[in-house]
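[User] Once you have settled down, look closely at the record that follows, and write a paragraph about the fold.
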Amino acid sequence: MTKDLAPGRRGRIRATAPDLGSLDQTSDESIERQVYRLLRRAMMAGLILPGTGLTGRSLADSLGTSPSPIRDALKRLEADGVIESRNKSAYFVSELTREQYLDIINLRMQIEGYAAGQAARHASADDIARIEALHARYAATSDYAESVHINYLFHFEIYRLARSPILIEIAENLWMRIGPVMHLHMQDYGVSDVTNNHGRMVEAIRRGDPRGATRALERDLTIASKIIAPNLQSAAISTNHQTPPA
């Protein structure tokens, strides 16, 4: 998942070179755009932990490219509000407060609940087969990091069936903020609970039941939030105990 792991302040783990995959040197897409996309996807999939340090040099060495486009991609992510600069050379993945997390969960309920309902209206037999395959992969894996990644793939396979690029863009922005927290704390969320909730979504979509799909999605988010939210600091505590700059 990551390379060169080292303990950070207050026991946090920081990775200087997350495993992002590889760049396509033959693509018409710019290197900066590819790096931005790979980092976004890694955050959504929970492959980068809160507090992780990201530097242009370490990422450039890992991806086999120059630091300049990497730094441009990091600046874009800083503008998105998902990483923050604490010194001249490093950015750190933002850590959500409890209030921020719950705000995102409320937004996800509205946006992703709607998407799940739309999926039940539009899903074809092939669509359902893809969702079922991801559901089966999740239930079969014993690797925690892989389960978090498959969870991301499963949800977005459903959301794409809403046939709304704008909805996907909004959902991705929310997941980019929440993905690192999900990886850090979802080990306390039983795999069987996720599997059961995913199964309810699959069944509702298969029978063309929008309300049932929405309810299953909301149940999934509600159970996760009850486990994750208590582990996060409140905004008041975070303000009174600022972490010194790295």
